[in-house]
Amino acid sequence: MSVWDELQGQAPVVAQLRAAAQGEGLTHAWLFTGPPGSGRSNAAKAFAAALNCEQDDVALRGCGECASCRTILGETHSDVTFVRTEKVTITIDEARQLVSKAGDRPATGRWRIIVVEDADRMAERTTNVLLKAIEEPTPRTIWMLCAPSPADVLVTIRSRCRPVSLRIPPAADVAALLVKRDGVDPAIADRAARAAQSHIGIARRLARDPEARERRMETVRFPLGLRGVTAAVMMAEKLVKIATDEANSSNDERDAAEKVALLASLGAPESGTLPPSMRSQVRQLEDDQKRRAKRSITDSLDRTLTDLLSFYRDVLVIQLGNAVELVNVELRSELEGYAASSTPEITLARMDAINKARVRITTTNVAPLLAVESMASSLIQQ
């Protein structure tokens, strides 16, 4: 597979990046923007692979088969650095390390490439650390920043980057990718693509994990039984539990593997008390894992609320005349009954309540359960 194959439904972006990889309009800094699920980090990775591809024919660069392409796609290439934070923000110390790394000449490839996948998670003073390096990079260095929208990046950075704007691909394209790349059954791929609202990563998880599909359907069906304050409180507790279980299921195994790898690299004894120097490094790892767990739960809860939002989105579609396809086609009869019991104005107010809860959870220190309980009380069906 070519490195471009995963960019389903992004033909204009692929054409732009292919041309740049062949030397037409290549510049030292790029800003990839698009909503969650648009594949902005995948586009940056594919571009990085094409720039350092080993093919002599520029038209073939991005082959996906050479050692350089494979190691960049696997994020193990010595000249390509991928930065993504699993904390709330990228720290200023991490930014300084990037600037230092960007000053190195490429060891084996044509370019030293820095891909910052969470450019929107940098505070202003952190971003300013990168400004000089992006404004006046070393001759063989290319920066690639990824963010949901241009407004999420400081204008001083934005003005020095060439924009690459991505959109959410059609669900049919996402389903086709799951069938081709992962061998998913076409019916399951279509259902997963719709349920994920074309978010490729989430669609892949839903297609491969029946339990994840069941948890999502449980979330989407909650409003059907939401009558009274008691039901709202119970719904809030279940939503938070679903999000926490979803996050912990991936964190526990990863945390254990990281600890084993750290102890092995330190040459720790198989039994007995660790030396003080080793204990401090293990403690640092555990602290980092706790911060990561907090963010992963927050992200998981945000995704759970997005699934809940799809219920009201479908209700609104029905109330306004079925102009577009439903996300939750399997629940059409229940959705139609629910839509008949309210008005578009009420549905919009309920969607607004969910979005307010998402903002509170992701941008403030409010306890997630309190935010979800407040939201749930606004969704009670009279």
Low-pLDDT parts are none
Record field, number of beta strands: 5
| Spatial ordering of strands, largest sheet | 2-3-4-1-5
Mean pLDDT: 86
| Individual helix count | 15
Largest sheet report: 5 strands, parallel
Strand composition percent: 5-15%
Task: Specify the structural class.
Answer: alpha/beta
Q: What series of H and E elements makes up the topology?
A: HEHHEHEHEHEHHHHHHHHH
Terminal Cα span = 53 Å
Radius of gyration based on Cα positions = 23 Å
Region (Disordered): 268-296
Biased composition (Basic and acidic residues): 284-296
Organism: Arthrobacter gyeryongensis
Protein name: DNA polymerase III subunit delta
Structure description:
The chain has a five-stranded parallel sheet, sandwiched between helices. It has 15 helices and five strands. It is α/β, with parallel strands linked by helices. Strand 3 (112-116), helix 5 (124-135) and strand 4 (141-147) form a beta-alpha-beta unit.
Task: Produce a short descriptive summary.
By secondary structure, the protein is an alpha/beta fold. It is built from 15 helices and five strands. It comes from Arthrobacter gyeryongensis.
Write the layout of secondary structure elements.
Elements: H1 11-21, E1 29-33, H2 40-51, H3 67-73, E2 80-83, H4 92-102, E3 112-116, H5 124-135, E4 141-147, H6 155-158, E5 162-165, H7 171-182, H8 186-195, H9 200-208, H10 210-221, H11 229-266, H12 276-319, H13 332-340, H14 344-363, H15 368-378
Parallel strand pairs: 1-4, 1-5, 2-3, 3-4
